[in-house]
Amino acid sequence: EPTVRTELMEQIPPIAIFLQESRPKFPTAFFEYLMPIVVRYLTDVNNQVRKAGQEALLILLEQDLVAQSDIENKVCPILLDLSAPDSDDEYKVEAVNIICKMASMLSRTTVEHMLLPRFCELCSDGKLFQVRKICAANFGDICNAVGQEATERLLIPKFFELCSDSVWGMRKACAECFMAVSYTTSPEVRRSKLSPLFISLISDTCRWVRQAAFQSLGPFISTFANPSSAGLYIREDGTLSIRPSAQDVNANSCQPSNNITLMSSSANAA
After folding, report:
1. Does 31 fall in a domain?
2. Tens of pLDDT, residues 113-164
3. CA 148, CA 151: separation in Å to the nearest integer?
4. Distance between CA atoms of 142 and 217, rounded to whole angstroms?
5. Which of 33, 201, 216, 259 is the most buried (most CB within 10 A)?
6. Where would I find the HEAT repeats (predicted)?
């Protein structure tokens, strides 16, 4: 019964946390019994069960309860199978979504070697625009997960493709995450490649794309500033913040914080 399996998935994270806290008594229970269930339900025939399994997996990863070996040998292979070119459309959309969400929770090596090649393929998926849309909306997070070298070598060419996609929602999503992508690149790439690309988005034929680009103009310009002198930095949640100087902090020690936060990306493109 699907409702029973769904309810079971919702109970997996609290059980896993209990087993982790009681690990001396149950040293292998999670890895032997619970993790195989989570992995199996990622391919369940019922979409509600799969959704519950995906949510449970993300919670487990966020709580750092999944061993690195299980991530590389059990979770990633399943997601790569589900996101393969010949995979069912619904499974593929779900797989790319969870790949993007879990990228920030995994080690850079795991993301770069196991998930990045497939992500680059999905950015060019000509069959499903929904897949490209998810890739575009999460592009900044993937860049942040793999770092500057992989971003400039592998991801920037894909970003150019998405910024010129025939579907305006794709271009709008790229405009919204432009600052996060720019922050991951070198000043030279920012100047020579991303600046002309951003100008093309500001001049886009679709007003929704132009509007999103203008909203990202200030955050994009801020990535050209010297962090040490401007006090700009990116938080772990992907937001751009301004750190007040020591002089300002001392002068306003009794006043509320005057930090300004600019979102690097917004909700998925409509």
Report:
1. yes
2. 999 999 999 999 888 889 999 999 999 999 999 999 999 999 999 999 999 9
3. 5
4. 21
5. 216
6. 115-154
